[in-house]
Prior knowledge:
Layout: H1 12-34, H2 38-51, H3 57-67, H4 73-80, H5 85-92, H6 102-114
Helix pairs in contact: 1-4, 1-6, 2-3
Amino acid sequence: MRARRPLRRGSITHSFVDQQISILHKAMAEKIVDNPSLVEQVKVTLEERLENGTLRYGAFLTWQCILEQVNDKDTFVAAVLEDSPLMKKYRRKTPFVGILSEEERQQALLSLETN
């Protein structure tokens, strides 16, 4: 049996995962803008993670600031999808869990395959 090599930063696979995560976050951000009541669900997730130590305070503040932009769709979506190493890291541990249904998630990922 062949041992799996860990992903290297900048590898094609790592890049593809980041691309998938971005596609999903675009779909989640748009759904949150269309349904602002979902912001409360995200805030609860953030609070829980901060309290149980699975989220650092800097990430908590970043997501809180992003959520404050929900009434400006372009700014909100741009903030969620910011192409910085830090936001890529934050998106990998997203507080947007449970926002998309499985069908919505699959639909978003299909859009990646057709592009």
